[in-house]
Design a protein that fits this description.
Elements: E1 7-13, H1 14-21, E2 24-27, E3 33-38, E4 48-50, H2 64-69, E5 75-78, H3 84-90, E6 93-96, H4 100-112, E7 118-123, H5 128-140, E8 145-147, H6 157-163, E9 171-175, H7 183-191, E10 195-198, H8 206-209, H9 212-219, E11 231-235, H10 241-251, E12 254-258, E13 270-273, E14 278-282, E15 285-289, H11 295-309, H12 314-321, E16 332-335, E17 339-343, H13 349-362, E18 368-373, H14 382-395, E19 400-404, H15 408-417, E20 425-428, H16 431-441, E21 447-451, H17 459-466
Parallel strand pairs: 3-4, 4-5, 5-6, 7-9, 7-10, 8-9, 10-11, 11-12, 17-21, 18-19, 18-21, 19-20
Antiparallel strand pairs: 1-3, 2-6, 13-14, 14-15, 16-17
Length: 467
């Protein structure tokens, strides 16, 4: 499968591209017109600049010769030698640069500098996309607002998101994802948010980052592109909040906190969870959002914090959020004779605890089954965190725990240590076996939570259960 690649409009010349990226034209004319930028050899248009990205499975450089000779591109960047002949023979422009991914980021930053929308940058371990969408809904009630489409939140997606900005945009909400140290810093320097948002700090990407503290420092890189005096909206209840506060103070960034903690700047008067909606009462205004789960209380509070920072009336924000539609696979409730909770988009310890807790709080008195698969990228701590989640499921008295993946035995270990009966914990070798078991086991009114990391593709179980 190819790496995710994108296309965007950007009218300029080859000479200006060389200047923006710090590159050097090694073949062709600097006056050649560029109208489209693409990193995908299949997504080309008029006068395309092709930017070859080196991914995990594909190297875009392998397509340069073919695209040049067939006249499909006007210009190409390269960080490797050997493409000069095909460029010269075809009359296309070839620009040598140090790093094609960095060059794409510089182009995105250059375009962003042309416009001055009020810009939010959103990061965190969990809830980034939902929070981005909620803030977008609130801002769109007042301003012409831009956002990332889907989850284009990385060093390829964010530059293309910035390239779609134009003079009509008054606000922008840009989600920033990461796996490694330095990624959020590079994205923040591109986006230059006036207002940053950290949804939470949790055990994610520990395989690459090593510790929860390192996760906090990595998320706090969002402040690298923020100016002194700008505002950071942060979850007061999160792990490692002290790190967020310390770094914000050092950089002279104003901290505006949300949460259930009494010390939060924005705290709800009350909240209520049901299967159909989350209701938050704040400043005597009732904010009803068609979202499920306790984690969404925090996501909604972050959106209300955005409203407060921009002086948008809470009543207006509430109206904007009343018809909110979330991205699929995130705590999606599907009712058949039984209820399936599709939480298969991704998984880590914090999101798993929220998911399990929400099932218990919302569906009291009903038989509850958790279908859990591996949580990835936890490194050396993986076993410990799977045991902790298993303990939580056991302590909250789930009726049945169905497990799949290499870490299943650790979920089981935790559940049994919390007092769960061994007959209520089952490990399966395949997703197909889980579905066949559930078809015989499920009764009307049962609740089934299905959760696992993206690579586990647990939506396969959901799709079979609801078919």
């Amino acid at each position: 499968m190819r790496e995710k690649r994108l296309k965007g409009l950007f009218k300029t010349t080859a000479g200006e591209i060389a200047a923006i990226t710090g590159g050097k034209i090694v073949s062709g004319n600097s006056d050649v017109i560029i109208e489209t930028i693409s990193t995908d050899s299949r997504e080309l248009d008029v006068n395309t600049l092709f930017i070859p990205i080196i991914g995990e499975t594909f190297d875009g450089h392998n397509f340069i010769d073919e695209l040049s000779v067939n006249g499909k591109i006007a210009c190409s960047l390269t960080m490797k030698e050997g493409y000069e002949k095909s460029a010269a023979d075809s009359g296309t422009v070839l620009i040598m640069c140090d790093d094609t991914l960095s060059a794409l980021g510089k182009i995105g930053r250059f375009h962003r500098d042309k416009f001055r929308p009020v810009t939010f940058g959103v990061t965190g371990t969990n809830g980034k996309t939902t929070t981005k969408e909620l803030i977008y809904a609130v801002l769109s009630s007042v301003y012409k607002t831009h956002k990332n489409v889907k989850n284009y939140n990385n060093e390829i997606g964010v530059p293309f998101t910035l390239l779609q900005l134009d003079e009509s945009h008054e606000a922008a909400v840009i989600e920033m994802g990461m796996n490694h140290t330095g990624e959020i810093e590079r994205l923040s320097l591109m986006v230059q948010p006036e207002i940053g948002v950290i949804t939470n700090i949790g055990a994610g990407h520990l395989e690459f980052l090593g510790s929860m503290e390192n996760v906090a420092f990595a998320k706090c890189e969002i402040m690298k592109g923020m100016k002194k005096g700008s505002t950071l909206i942060a979850n007061r209840d999160t792990e490692c909040f002290h790190i967020i506060k310390k770094l914000a103070d050092e950089k002279g960034i104003k901290l505006f906190t949300f949460g259930l903690d009494a010390g939060s700047d924005l705290r709800p008067d009350s909240y209520k969870l049901t299967a159909e909606k989350t209701v938050v009462v704040y400043k005597k205004e009732t904010v009803t959002v068609p979202l499920y789960g306790k984690h969404n209380v925090y996501n909604i509070l972050a959106a209300l914090a955005a409203a407060e920072i921009l002086n948008i009336k809470i009543s207006r924000a509430a109206e904007a959020l009343s018809s909110f539609v979330n991205v699929g696979g995130r705590s999606e409730i599907i009712d058949r004779k039984y209820t399936v909770i599709n939480d298969t988009y991704n998984s880590n310890p914090l999101s798993s605890l929220f998911a399990l807790e929400s099932v218990c709080d919302v569906f009291q008195g009903r038989r509850k089954i958790a279908v859990l698969a591996d949580m990835k990228e936890l490194g050396e701590s993986s076993c410990v965190y799977h045991v902790k989640v298993g303990e939580f499921a056991g302590a909250r008295k789930f009726d049945l725990l169905l497990l799949y993946g290499e870490m299943a035995e650790y979920y089981e270990k935790g559940a049994l240590s919390a007092g769960m009966n061994s007959s209520s914990v089952k490990i399966f070798d395949s997703k197909e076996e889980i579905v066949l078991f559930l078809k015989d086991f499920l009764l009307e009114d049962d609740v089934v939570l299905v959760k696992g990391s993206r690579s586990m593709k647990m939506e396969d179980v959901v799709n079979r259960l609801i078919a």
